[in-house]
What does this fold into?
Amino acid sequence: MDLDLTGRTALVTGSTQGIGLAIAEGLAASGARTVVNGRTADRVAEAVEGLRARVPGADVHGAAADVATAEGAAEVVAAFPGVDVLVNNLGIFEARPVLEVDDDEWRRYFEVNVLSGVRLARAYLPRMVERGWGRVQFVASDSAVAIPAEMVHYGVTKTALLGVSRGFAKAVAGTGVTVNTVLAGPTLTGGVETFARGLVGEDLPWEEVEARFMAEHRPASLLHRLIRPEEIAHLVVYLASDASSATTGGALRVDGGYVDAILP
It folds into this structure.
């Protein structure tokens, strides 16, 4: 299968660490001119430097801006107007009892997790349609389908992405542009490690923390382990390629079998 992305420009939001950084690396390794995004110039520069070191010859650039704001999104679009592949990965999460989440926090989660991607899709899709080729992806979560009791506000924003993605896919039907959602399962990132240790035990060896976290808090997983970020990236790279031309309007799972359903 040819996943060569040479000649394509890809933007990955929230890509200075974790899943976003792994996605950026996968796209760069496949030949795409890759744009790394984060809120601070130092973090972006560090991520860009790391990618160039790990992927010799990679064409990697940085876009330091907060795309959860209209101003930040506009800055990125102005700096990189010719994006062929847009991966809306930016997202935040935190465990909190739902009765304690106030209006401001609900708004913040929607601004970051939903509207950041909506703004960029709205900006880039017309240009993709004009060219007759484009790929837009929204990185959601198993939490979109199996709402976690400890993070209802997070789960609901990921559910919203399923509808947003499907709707944008209909808006560009028949144009050669595809729009999909990637449903990522429990994945080993720095944030998830901290989250798991907080639930299981701060001072335990990581192997024990991971095993107990999965057994006690994510027992539906068929992997019985956390997914690694590069495993999410593999699906994203495929969806960014010509090989995925008949896949659009979908919610594709790379969740380790966590969601107990035949379809999302």
